[in-house]
Design brief:
single chain; 296 residues; alpha/beta; Cobalt-precorrin-4 Transmethylase, domain 1; Rossmann fold; four-stranded parallel beta sheet; flat; binds iron/sulfur cluster
């Protein structure tokens, strides 16, 4: 079995910068990380091991309202309302919000102030989306074109979660225009460039392989979107968080497998999965030879 890697995959600059800030913190026990720093269990385990106080993916938990003196805002960002709550409680904030997430916040607020009702194309309940809608008055969150309705507003302003696919955003935008023919619909593409580059690299690779392995947290939106894109193009996709989730049986009959990874996947995790795939491929070849000999 041959393994071909996507020419763009793995950590984006936003996550890399956040990890660098974290590495430079001397007293982890004094710092609450406000939500999952990245949707990646390997990283989460390391942070817990260093002594950071971790909030769960939904940013709620036993420490709610009792955070340590220092709170680290993750790359996904928070609403101004949440920031104010933390500061009013006397917390010092370390802010690792990605500038491309900040751009979505600014865009959504600007649209609202210009009289548009804001529609966010994104996953309901995702921390980034919660942060974006947290400062808006009556936002609408749409995950799929089936959910789109006829809205009572004259002006609709659309922004996207940074890790949305261009395909899905395009379909939802078209459905909003179709269901609201009287409304003025303004669309601002706020999908981040690293996410687009990962998806475009997958597009270049997908026709050359029989199946794809996508590496990243099971709750990582951009990783899930990469796997969904493969399946949408008729290619089987195996979404794994780490090499030990690879099942050799899944690869029977596959001649060429592609490898890609979400924006929160560490380089070493990708290398481990690559090595495991090469091993599985080699083992498969030996198994094949053995079977042929047995049949001869
Ligand atoms: S996925 Fe995009 S928006 Fe999110 S941290 Fe990375 S660069 Fe920033």
């Amino acid at each position: 079995m041959r393994v071909i890697r996507a020419d763009v995959m793995g950590l984006c600059f936003g996550v890399r910068d956040a990890l660098e800030v974290i590495d430079g913190i001397d007293e982890p026990r004094a710092v609450t990380i406000h939500g999952e720093l990245v949707h990646n269990e390997v990283v989460q385990r390391r942070l817990a091991g260093r002594g950071f106080v971790l909030k769960g993916e939904d940013r709620r938990g036993a420490s709610d309202g009792h955070e340590t003196p220092v709170v680290l805002i993750t790359a996904h960002g928070v609403s101004d309302r949440e920031r104010a709550r933390l500061e009013a409680g006397g917390r010092r904030l370390i802010d690792t919000t990605c500038p491309l997430v900040e751009r979505v916040h600014r865009t959504a607020r600007a649209l609202e102030s210009e009289g548009y009702r804001v529609v966010v194309i994104g996953r309901r309940g995702h921390v980034e989306v919660e942060g974006i809608v947290g400062d808006l008055s009556e936002p609408i969150v749409v995950e799929s074109e089936d959910e789109v309705a006829a809205y009572p507003d004259r002006r609709l302003g659309i922004v996207c979660q940074t890790t949305m696919t261009e395909d899905r955003a395009g379909r939802i935008r078209a459905a909003i225009v179709a269901r609201n023919p009287e409304a003025e619909v303004r669309f601002v593409d706020t999908i981040c460039l690293p996410t687009k580059e990962h998806q475009r690299a997958l597009d270049r690779l997908i026709e050359r392989v029989d199946a794809m392995v996508v590496v990243g947290g099971h709750n990582s939106n951009n990783t899930r979107e990469l796997a969904a894109k493969c399946r949408g193009r008729g290619k089987p996709a195996l979404h794994v968080q780490s090499a030990d989730e690879l099942d050799p049986a899944w690869f029977r009959g596959i001649g060429v497998v592609g490898l890609t990874a979400g924006t929160s996947t560490l380089p070493e995790t990708i290398e481990e999965v690559h090595r495991a795939l090469v091993w599985i491929g080699g083992d498969g070849e030996r198994l094949e030879v053995g079977l042929q000999r047995a049949g001869a």
